[in-house]
Amino acid sequence: MTATTGQTGDTRPLVVVLGAAGFVGSAVLRELARHDLRVRAVSRRPVTVPAGARAEVETRSVDLTVPGAMAGAIEGADVVVHSIAYIAGSSTWRITDGDTGAERVNVGLVRDLVEAVRASGRPDTAVLFTGSVSAAGPSERGVYDGTEPDEPQGEYDRQKLAAERVLLAASAEGVLRGISLRLPTVFGYGPDSTARDKGIVSSMVRRAVAGEPITMWHDGTVRRDLLYVEDVARAFAAALGHLDALAGRHWVLGSGHGAELGPVFTTVARMVAERTGKPPVAVRSVEPPAHAEARDFASVTVDPRAFHEVTGWRAEVPLDEALDRTTAFSASGAEEHFG
């Protein structure tokens, strides 16, 4: 990785993390802080600098939807990690058709980023985008390896794919080096977590901690590739050493295992009971709401071998261990301190 020289003559690479106060972005920031880098953490909300950081970490509070803000945020960057999520209500991803606010964030900010890099005249700039496996749409096989055609079904999936295509088109044009890392269901907390996980797994953990039943919109046999957030952060760090080999396409990340959600939630109920000393809550199937989408009932397993062959990365934290860390964090009340 080539590096720019900062004002102090520091030649370490400058990695800019956009969305650094968010769920995935904060985990990426914690991981990058362990490396000998310069890191600029950009978010609309205040960013927590990881304790004991080896990296030189600069924080900036910026509303990137303001015209011209993107150029200043990424100035001098060797790598930009785009981990901005449009959050509405209790979910990080479910949006309605015609939501212009979501489109401005999910797609518009990628356009702004491309134009900012174009104006900088630095085509060696690499952009790592947090894509989504769901951009491919439901698969009859239920197994995704990155070669399946893209047929997104929901508005969130369509917007994530549109943003990815903007980035990769710019990469093909030579404006930048674009890389999309498509993520499956990401979840979890570790001892140093600083951002709320609004995904399905942690939401059900919170229900169990509150003594409420865990509910499913199906019979529990739907499988999901559940990828622990700390493993996701390591994947982004691993990509930094292989930017040229990764550039110009999307790559799928996952654990390589599709876990049935019924047994997962039963495990969650048991683990929470062990933490709280109360009986395990019930795990129930309920009627799906009107806003349920096809993806809610689709099984997903990801085959990440292509990314592994380039970077050597693989998911390291076993599912039960990741669930245990997550239930311990939630049962401790640590989430109450999140904004």
UniProtKB/TrEMBL annotation:
A GO MF label: UDP-glucose 4-epimerase activity
UniProt entry tagged with the keyword Isomerase: yes
The UniProt record lists the keyword Electron transport: no
EC code: 5.1.3.2
Enzyme class name: isomerase
Signal peptide: none
Pfam families per UniProt: Epimerase
Membrane-crossing segments per the record: none
UniProt keywords, alphabetically: Isomerase
Domain (NAD-dependent epimerase/dehydratase) ranges: 15-254
Name of this protein: UDP-glucose 4-epimerase
Organism phylogeny: Bacteria, Bacillati, Actinomycetota, Actinomycetes, Kitasatosporales
